[in-house]
Amino acid sequence: MEEGDEESKGMTPERVVKILARHQEIITVQQAKRMLEMVNLLAGIAVNQYLRNTKS
Questions:
Q1: What is the Cα Rg of the chain in Å?
Q2: What is the pTM of this model?
Q3: Which residues contact 32 (CB under 8 A, 6 or more apart)?
Q4: How far apart are CA 47 and CA 13, in angstroms?
């Protein structure tokens, strides 16, 4: 993932850290970045599966 990708999607690792901190979950910025990468990957897979299922 390239630098700035998270910002264009509206969610930055820093924002994830702050949101989780409000819920007493402490993570690092690096962990938040990896979490966002995983969420984006899973979202892409879900969309692809949905589109494949609607074609039939």
A1: 14
A2: 0.73
A3: 13, 14, 16, 17, 20
A4: 23
